[in-house]
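To the team - nicotinamide-adenine-dinucleotide complex, inputs and output below.
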Amino acid sequence: MLSLGFNPTGVILPEGHFIDGRAQWLEGRRIDVLRPSDGVPFGQVPAGGEEAVDLAVASAIQALATSGWAMRPPRERGRVLRRWADLMEVHAVELAQLEAVSSTRPVTGAFNSDIPATIEAIRFFGELADKLGGDVAATRRDSLGFVASEPYGVIGAIAPWNFPLSMMSWKVGPALAAGNAVVLKPSELTPFSTVRAAQLAIEAGLPAGILNIVHGFGHEAGAAIVRHPKIAKVSFTGSTRTGAAIMADIAATGIKPLTLELGGKSPQLVFEHVDDLRHTADCIVRGFTSNAGQACVAGTRLVVHEKLLEPLVETIIEMITPMSPSVTWDAEGTYSPIISKKQAYRIDSLVTQSVERGAEILLGGGMFDGPHEGAFYRPTLLHRVDSDTPAVREELFGPVLTVQTFRDEHEGIALAAHPTYGLAAGVHTSNLSQAMRAMRGIAAGTVWINRYNRSGDMVIPTGGFGQSGIGQDLGRQAVEANLRHKSVLIDFA
Ligand code: NAD
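Output:
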């Protein structure tokens, strides 16, 4: 059987920015990249800024002009994307190891889940490239009105660190399928796997310059992308705070459209009757411990009917007690490290503040003991919380579940609502009508009923309400978001 475990010092890292189809080091300044599992610096990327973004945009514009990427039949663009997906499949082990070495993704999870999801997304957008039509308008008999869709030109994409390759595929797949070129900045914390994927795209037939990867810090390379006058649209995934800063920056430096996929504080609403309590507990456990809670849609607020509190919490505790840390290059490892010590201290500080405000720790609290040089936070359950408790109010981005109870449906739905975020929600009940009432009652971009995760069907779009974002990734909606629409009216009287 294939063993996915590996020696992290043996991994070959792609060099430099990836601009015009090749590696480029433009700046003397470097960013040290640390392995979250043990905090060891293991590679460097250039600290890019305006110069690198300028070069990447120039290369994208040149490539659009000379390769005819936007003018090609959509079917042909789709074929290139599908070939790219096939090629990533061939390199799946290499990509999984590259993903695991610098991120919080355990290698087996990356191989079985992240890499297939990335491949499926690129394949899905490749298949969709020639499937979208436009609108013909009802106008007079002697005129024809229709809407012609066109790519924007150069799209600027900015990605977070929590699922580096998967987030890349959500941004790049629809933008390329629609005929755009892309300048993408991965997170400075997890930069390498994205470059390797981009190299494979060129190998699959994407013209050099149509996909460029620029490294750097958010306030430098990220801001340079946002402000660049020749970047026609920005697509961002990350925290609500950064999303707001980007909106302000765009408003100050010129108007351009923006897709924002931001943070969340998603509820798991459990009514009095569920078909299978263990299944519900499993959804809740996975919902807040996968990637150690470092998922935008992490279900971190349990809102449970008081009659189910005890049996449900007991089952959850039984399920999470065996979880233990291991480095991401251990093939047996499943429990993720926190991305950095700084982030782990932030989680711990919010837990401490919650306890100071009256929360009771039912399990966990603090980092795992032992010889781990990285930061592994214990799955943590906090009871006796209210809407002012910091762990209820704020996105911790860690494995912390708050527990609140309710007595009737109305109260449950009200508690599930969050004043700030509206990304996802889980509803658990055996009563279909109740599930539908809750679905209508909760303001969230995604509602999962008797499950808690994406299905892997890229056809279902994802996006947030309120401060969780604007616009959607995935689905045909993502391709449409990468097109602008021109209204055409022809008279033929
Ligand atoms: P972050 O906001 O700190 O950084 C995201 C990206 O933005 C990074 O590449 C960073 O370098 C860049 N950036 C930072 N400041 C910038 C600026 N001023 N201008 C331009 N770019 C800038 O987020 P993170 O810590 O990398 O990721 C975690 C966050 O992402 C969480 O809040 C999570 O909920 C969110 N997220 C949302 C989704 C979704 O689909 N809604 C998916 C994954 C992650």
